[in-house]
Amino acid sequence: MASYLVRGGLRLTGDVTISGSKNAALGIIAAATILDGPCKIENIPDVADINVLLEIIKSLGAEIRRDSEGSLYIDPMPIDSWSADNERVRSIRGSYYLLGAMLGRFQNASILMPGGCNFGTRPIDQHMKGFEALGAHVSIEHGRISLHAEKLKGENIFLDVVSVGATINIMIAATKAEGITVIENAAKEPHIVDVANFLNTMGANIRGAGTDVIRITGTPVLPAGGSYAVIPDQIEAGTYMLAAAITRGDITVHGLIPKHMEPLSAKLEEMGASIELGDDSIRVSIEAGSDLTAASFKTMPYPGFPTDLQPQTTVLLCTVLGTSRMFENVWDNRFQYIDELKMMGAQIMTSGQMAIIDGVPELSGAVVTARDLRAGAAMVLAGLVAEGTTEITDIAKIERGYENFTAKMRALGADITRIEN
Ligand code: EPU
User: Fold this and answer.
1) pTM of the shown model
2) DSSP-H helix ranges across 190-254
3) Which CATH class is domain 22-229?
4) 331 CB less than 6 Å from ligand 1?
5) What is the pLDDT of residues 180-234, one digit of tens each?
6) So where are the chain's domains?
7) What's the CATH number for 2-18+232-420?
8) Measuring CA to CA, which of 66, 69, 231, 391 is 20 to 30 A from 20?
9) Is residue 190 lining ligand 1, measured as CB closer than 6 Å?
10) How far apart are CA 338 and CA 335, in angstroms?
11) Which of 50, 62, 117, 157 is labelled catalytic?
């Protein structure tokens, strides 16, 4: 197992460019399997979760090629199976999009229960509710989900819970249903808009993505043939913006969409950071002689504060004197990493979904584990300001979602090394 060694105490400065969004790319790659021809997708991040999904669709028969610039060519026409049996399905969350895609394309789907980061129960009842409304029979037996429909027919679907995954999954299946599907109480995350834009570019008819009502007019043939570029990764961008604030540094994050970053930019500004917006960049710096003030955060579906920046933000709050609060409103068990932070000297008390953080003058280096993808990134951020050296183990979890993480960090001045134990 590999680890990162981080020597703390260095102020990060300079420029970093953001990769394509992992979570948008997962939806788009799955959506590409319902097309009636090949397509080119640009700005696909080279991270483990994406590579696993590509392996799975290859095993279903898709032809896949990647060029040196990171563009991906997918020809879904040779796909001749709707059943994904291998263990890879269980290692990522995004494999659940193959349910919607295979149901749309073959009116049948069969995959093992998806895996992904562990932060409590991760039900998929809203996905199933949507598929059933479209006419599918759902059975879940021995850890396998099977869907079958004689015919998919558009319906009105009201989601009981705002779910990113259910919104995208139903949108993909409904693209191949007959008639009109309306998803109400839909999630509004940027990657939902991106999957809809991708499908529309390839011939689909989806309106309203980015609002809580999405209307999909089923399209029997999706001619494809075009090219599409994935949006930048909002969470990767946020992680580097937080690295600037945590090290009291000065970083310009390039290639992002400033609008997507508003929930974080606004809070950093409120805490006393200087935020300079460019057309596709944000500079985060802390003016000499000033410091940040304590704050309260509550994670919410977009456009609220993203849960996927919660652990990294908690690290920032550890470095700010005074008492801050973090309320996790999306996942029921996303504070497991706090035990690791406490080993580094953090003073945090949790009560249910709330963490109360008392800033400390200094964290200290320790051996800590990446409990999940974002929690792992948070440990690296903590290591950047800790006294001495921090070893982060189980870093495969971090490499599921951050492209060239150590190279990007080192270019900003971080002392981080990857070691094979
Ligand atoms: N929920 C249900 N029923 C469902 C689906 C979700 O009750 O059928 C609940 C969940 O338990 C949770 C809430 O709804 O409390 C939100 O879950 P959602 O379905 O939106 O999450 P997801 O689609 O499984 C995606 C991202 C996560 C991110 C969440 C929330 C992907 C592959 N994953 O998960 O990203 O935390 O949305 O924004 O897109 C990450 O990238 O590190 C990551 C974990």
Assistant:
1) 0.97
2) 190-201, 234-246
3) alpha beta
4) yes
5) 999 999 999 999 999 999 999 999 999 999 999 999 999 999 998 889 999 999 9
6) 2-18+232-420, 22-229
7) 3.65.10.10
8) 391
9) no
10) 6
11) 117
Take atom 37 of ligand 1 and give the residue whose Cα is closest.
Answer: 164
> How many angstroms does the Cα of residue 308 sit away from the middle of ligand 1?
10
Which of 93, 125, 129, 140 has most ligand 1 atoms within 8 Å of CB, for mutation?
A: 93
Residue nearest to atom 17 of ligand 1 (CA): 163
Q: How far apart are the CA of 272 and the centre of ligand 1, in A?
A: 31
Q: Is 39 an annotated catalytic residue?
A: no
Report the C-alpha gap between 134 and 304 in whole angstroms: 30
Residue 225 amino acid letter:
G
75-104: burial string, b at 16+ Cβ within 10 Å, e else: bbeebeebbbeeebbbbbbbbbbbbbbbbb
63-100: pLDDT as tens digits: 999 988 889 999 999 999 998 877 787 788 888 999 99
Q: Indicate if ligand 1 lies below 6 Å from the C-beta of 188.
A: no
Decide if 2-18+232-420 and 22-229 have a common fold: yes
78 CA distance to ligand 1 centroid (A)? Answer: 31
Token look-up 């604030």 returns: 245
406 alpha carbon – ligand 1 mean position (Å): 27
